Here is the input.
Amino acid sequence: VSSFLLTSKQSSEEIIEQQKRTGVNTIQIVDRLIYGSYNDFKKALPAVSIFQVIHVKDKDSVKEAIEVAPKVDGLLLDSGNQALPVKQLGGTGRTHDWNISFNICRAVNVPVFLAGGLNYENIELAVKKVMPFGVDVCNGVRRNGKLDETKLSLFFSKIKNMQTT
Here is the structure.
């Protein structure tokens, strides 16, 4: 079982401090790392996995993923936008261009998880188009901000049916 710290901090030093307070075994960086380096994590936290979120917008997202992938343990492709005055760093409920995500999956040698607007209605198509290592779902199984058991059940039924066909 993995315990995740989702952080929008952009400094390796601050993120390392967060991990030491929480004791998680996986860090998911939802914004770009600006201060420090990914190597700082390997030195300070050798047993902790590092996942970088790539906010898929255009072909530059492929370049970003290729550059970051050798430095981390995995990528998560989401539909945020770091360029807005108030950054969107996940949880938008929006899908992105899955063709770009497919290109990222094929271009890197680390596990890639797909997120962004996934739900029981589109999960089968998303997985077939992108072929990710795994998926990350949140808003797609919620109603009015709360977990919706029906949506969750439908989501996992679709996943299960994909595994048997």
